[in-house]
Write a structure and sequence with these properties.
38% helix; mainly alpha; disordered N terminus; two-stranded antiparallel ribbon; 22 helices; three-stranded antiparallel sheet; 11 strands
């Protein structure tokens, strides 16, 4: 992004970069200083603004993919980090939300981005015809992007808070600086959803009017220009929106089965009409050549080897510097960090079995990314078959069992922690202490030791549309469709190991199918921010109640269905450390208890926001920090 966007971004003023409507503390600068008299005068101005907004969108990566999409799910274990580090934000992993623990403030600043979209639309209405002249295709294409991105932001607000103020006009740009008149309460959920769907329709119409035109600054010849919003991205969003509104009831919106049928049309368009195709391997989809990746639908751009800082995913990667991990655990992963091995090496070191010489493993050495603050659940590792290439997104750490330690001590052998490698390693004889995530390979530039997070952050890729179509097929009672879509994903994941008779899915009843789809999401989309939303959307009963969603049901547990596997491996348990015994794997406990926690599927609003705008109402189920007895006339529960 540094090379591609920096020069343009520096020249572009994003008018609505703050949540201008939330309080009386408005920006003191006149937003019109870059208005119709100084900016928004040429096609270059408008197109440059789009580029700047794509840069701005990167600021949402961590919050969307990790903080909102995964952190509060059962991917992460709340007890302890394996290397002895204290966990960050443990209360989020435990889902302990309250009016004083809101996780996000100011609607995660989505309204800042929405304000920029509103500003663009306003100035296009004022100056667009003159600025673009005869190039109406480019003008329409840009508006397709803007309406699509605004719909995306509004949809995140809907999923997270149910609804919000429908701020879709450029009030401040129009000269309204009166804070009291800018106060606005939340719309009903149905009104909010209707605005999202309206923006989707507008986006598609503008893209259609643009014809085959692609964004003028399509970066590097990347297929479909996936670093910019596209018509394919809008159709992917439409499929997600209608699938959600067809299966999830919120407030005055009741899940509408007809919306599932509508979602199917959009998702089929994504699969069939844009040239998207699964990459040859799972690793290619995530770490392959960007210019050759036809699988990605929309992603934010990070420059290979030239980004100045690591990406957000470093928080869940291993750092050899901290904790006691290097001297306590062994991992049967090759020296390159990408393949299984028959020799388990002491973590972060490589010992040559032939000579006994010990050296720092260069791969692990470059992964200096901060303390290991989040611990991945062993249940996910157990869900993968050994033949599934996606399992290599996790690096397992094993520890000797107590019996093995006692045996070595009785024989007077060295402290087991001093053992540098174990030949002919059999994982079943050891405890799986935990796994570190290594999905995004990033890069280590020449002459540098520090890992650089240069992977694009993928919001939408083709397998998401395919598995959503599996959901649709299950909803329609189409078992053959469920099998087809699930097996498309599995076949790529297993590669040369694929054997449909052994690994192919066999359809069951609605609940069994839905559970299989949920588990496929979990294995395919680790670190892509989908786990929380699939737990919220998928359900054990077609057309059932809120209580039937997977987030409240045993089938939603990450370890669901593992009982037989666990029984056959007495050393298998949940995360343990050298100071803590292994914990049992959760195979049946729902993530949330419906009777006491149903309201926390939505996030609360923070106190400062509620205090600055008296028109805003707290999310139902939470209280007002300054007035616990205040009524909450928001929407139906």
């Amino acid at each position: 992004m540094k090379n591609k966007f920096k020069s343009i971004f520096a020249a572009v003023a994003l008018v609505g970069s703050a949540w201008l409507m939330q309080s009386c503390n408005l920006d003191e600068n006149d937003p019109n200083q870059f208005g119709a008299t100084g900016f928004w005068r040429s096609e270059t101005d408008f197109t440059g603004n789009i580029t700047a907004m794509m840069n701005q969108f990167r600021g949402y990566d961590q919050n969307i993919m990790f903080n909102a999409g995964e952190l509060r799910t059962d991917y992460y274990v709340p007890e302890v980090s394996i290397d002895g580090s204290a966990l960050n934000t443990d209360w989020i992993v435990r889902n302990q939300y309250s009016n004083s623990q809101t996780q996000f403030s100011k609607y995660m600043d989505f309204y800042g981005y929405i304000s920029n979209c509103n500003t663009y639309i306003y100035y296009d209405e004022q100056n667009g015809e003159t600025a673009f002249g005869s190039n109406t295709a480019a003008r329409n294409y840009n508006l397709g992007i803007i309406y699509g991105m605004r719909a995306w932001c509004l949809f995140q607000i809907h999923k997270m808070w149910g609804t919000g103020p429908l701020r879709v006009n450029a009030d401040v740009i129009l000269g309204n600086y009166d804070p009291e008149s800018l106060y606005m309460t939340q719309a009903s959920v149905e009104e909010f959803l209707n605005q999202i769907k309206s923006d989707i329709n507008s986006s598609l119409q503008y893209f259609n009017n643009a014809g085959s035109t692609t964004f003028p600054l399509n970066p590097g010849g990347v297929p479909h220009g996936y670093h910019y919003w596209t018509k394919g991205a809008t159709e992917m969003l439409a499929g997600e929106v209608y699938l959600w509104s067809g299966k999830v009831s919120t407030g005055d919106h009741k899940a509408n089965p007809a919306d599932v049928t509508t979602a199917k049309t959009y998702l089929q368009n994504v699969v069939n009409n844009y040239g998207y195709a699964l990459a040859p391997t799972y690793d290619d989809a995530i770490n392959g050549n960007k210019a050759q990746n036809n699988e990605v639908i929309f992603a934010t751009y990070y420059d290979n080897g030239k980004e100045t800082s690591s990406n957000w995913y470093n928080y869940v990667m291993y750092d050899y510097v901290t904790g006691g991990t290097p001297n306590q655990y062994w991992s049967p992963v090759g020296q390159d960090g990408t393949s299984p091995a028959t020799v388990a090496q002491c973590w972060s070191y490589y010992t040559d079995p032939a000579t006994g010489s010990k050296s720092r493993n260069q791969y692990y050495y470059t992964k200096q990314n901060g303390q290991q603050r989040y611990c991945i659940s062993n249940a996910l590792w157990y869900q993968y078959d050994a033949e599934d290439s996606r399992r290599l997104t996790l690096i397992p750490l094993y520890e000797m069992s107590q019996a093995q330690r006692e045996e070595r001590t009785a024989l007077g052998l060295d402290n087991p922690n001093a053992i540098q490698f174990i030949e002919n390693f059999n994982a079943d004889d050891y405890y799986l202490a935990s796994c570190f995530i290594w999905k995004y390979h990033g890069s280590a530039p020449t002459g540098q030791e520090r890992f650089v997070g240069s992977n694009d952050m993928i919001y939408y890729r083709l397998p998401l549309a395919i598995l959503m179509l599996a959901e649709v097929a299950n909803y329609e009672g189409d078992n053959s469709g469920v099998v087809n879509y699930i097996n498309q994903i599995r076949q790529r994941a297993y590669g040369d190991n694929w054997d449909a008779t052994q690994f192919g899915y066999t359809a069951g009843d609605f609940t069994q199918n839905e559970t299989a789809i949920l588990q496929e999401y979990a294995k395919e989309f680790l670190q892509e921010g989908q786990r929380w939303w699939t737990l919220r959307r998928l359900t054990t009963v077609k057309g059932g109640t809120d209580q039937d969603h997977m987030v409240f049901q045993p089938q939603g547990a990450l370890g669901y269905g593992l009982d037989a596997k666990l029984a056959a491996h007495p050393n298998w348990g949940e995360v343990k450390t050298y100071t803590m015994a292994p914990q049992p794997v959760n195979t049946s406990k729902p993530l949330l208890d419906y009777a006491t926690q149903k309201y926390i599927v939505l996030w609360p609003l923070n106190a400062d926001l509620l205090g600055s705008d008296p028109a805003l109402l707290q999310t139902p189920g939470y209280t007002y920090p300054s007035d616990p007895d205040r009524e909450q006339p928001w929407i139906e529960n």
